[in-house]
Amino acid sequence: MSTWIFKLARKQLNLAALILLFISAQASAATTEIIITGGVDSARPIGVVPFKYAGSATLPENLSEVVASDLQRSGKFNPLKLSSMPQFPTTDSEINYEAWTQKGIDMVVVGSIEATGLNQYLVTFELIDVLRAKATGGQAKNLENGKLVMTRDHVIEKRTKTINGSDFRQYAHIISDIVYEKLTGEKGAFLTRIAYIKVLDRDTNPKPYRLVIADYDNVNPTTLLSSPEPLMSPTWSPDGNSLAYVSFENKRSQIYLQDIYTTSRTRLTDFPGINGAPSFSPDGRRLAMVLSKDGNPEIYVMDLQTRNLTRITRNRAIDTEPSWTPDGKSLIFTSERGGKPQIYQVNLATNRKSRITFEGEMNLGGAVTPDNSQLIIVNRTRGDYHIAKQDLTNGDMLVLTRTYLDESPSISPNGSMIIYSVLENGKPALAWVSLDGRFSFKEPVADGEVKSPSWSPFLL
Q: DSSP for 295-362?
């Protein structure tokens, strides 16, 4: 077995851990503390004013607080602290435009919540361009059907909706998505989910391995599967309805497909040796994976309708960690065929393979951003493992993180953020970093270990 597998075993990179678990098998409530690790000095300032509430019952969630947190986590916005806000308006008509622009704020979110019935709330919010409003005095003249009419074009968005108490957090994410898209031109990804593997104390839990799904910010975690044996490498289907993952429930690695709504599941592979690292094609019809049924870990692609396999690589070195390019025409994978693990790309039409990473001692776990512009990788330089991105046009590499023993990066569906696993107090935990590296944070785990995060596609 190759030496780099043993060097990486402590990092628990997917295949390394899978191999170790395979050998072993042959022989035998979320935390809420967030630690911000990167600043947002260059992010766009924005005002998210606390929504005014008219009602007596305690609100189930602080809407404006969730919106501000979402926007900050994107790395593209820097919400103004409450203590620095010049006023607390509820509507556009209450805004002192001059006061906000003097604070360097050009966009403000205001809103209100009114209790309208049993567990029913009327939510209104507005996104205001205060810089535009200051220039026009709140009234602009536009030409419509040959006539000049007065407009309030500084009101970028205004919506009103009645929601249930249980929908507060979801609606906050919807507001965040709307604001994000209006101001960046990109679709927001705050209404997405993540999946990951959680490992509880093995001495006190008969089923310590958990397959968990949660909101993108790890709120509302739900255990989809508990197992006495290791679970690994969850990955979302493109429609967001299913997860593929590796299970050792039967004392050997097997790949399963599970519906997240019905929890029904199907075993896809049960080949001798390694069955690991599943990855859906963009159209959801094929699944790339690593199998060692023929003796050496190689990349295969399974047609999910016929279950027919196509072998993609054939090499004495270990090939692993396949992921698809956005057009579904190529696979990115890790291979040690050059002596040390590096990222390669194979064209599925021609089977032509090419190496695409060269900087640093090793590069692993590659995935291409949705716009096909960046390769996200785990880069090892001078013994340190960090998340990095490589420009696919000019080859420039930028290290994004300063955390410890980073691994398993997964990209949000709009390409703005990356979730990955870090070592925190000796245990794997979750961390997030914006694609430009300007904002990052991590979430310590109080009860167990969390690893192998996978970001869902857009769900709406």
A: SS-EEEEEETTT--EEE----SS-EEEEEE-TTSSEEEEEE-TTSS-EEEEEETTT--EEE---SSSE
- How do strand 107-117 and strand 52-54 relate by DSSP bridges? parallel
Q: What's the number of domains the chain is made of?
A: 2
Neighbours of 152 (CB within 10 A): 15
User: Which residues are registered as beta bridge partners of 131?
Assistant: none
Exposed, middle or buried by CB within 10 Å (0-12, 13-18, 19+), for 307?
exposed
Q: Report how far residue 71's alpha carbon sits from residue 176's, in angstroms, rounded to the nearest whole number.
A: 7
Residue 436 and residue 331 share a domain: yes
The mean per-residue pLDDT over the stretch 316-335 comes to 97
Structure confidence by residue, pLDDT tens digits, 386-429: 999 999 999 999 999 988 889 999 999 999 999 999 988 888 88
End-to-end alpha-carbon separation of the chain, Å? 45
Q: Over range 164-169, report the average pLDDT.
A: 94
pTM for the whole thing?
A: 0.87
We report the CATH number of the domain holding residue 148 as: 3.40.50.10070
- pLDDT tens sequence across 374-384: 999 999 999 99
Residue span of the structural domain in which 204 resides: 193-455
Tell me, what CATH number does 370's domain have? 2.120.10.30
d(Cα 369, Cα 389) in Å, to the nearest integer?
10
SS3 label, residue 447 = coil
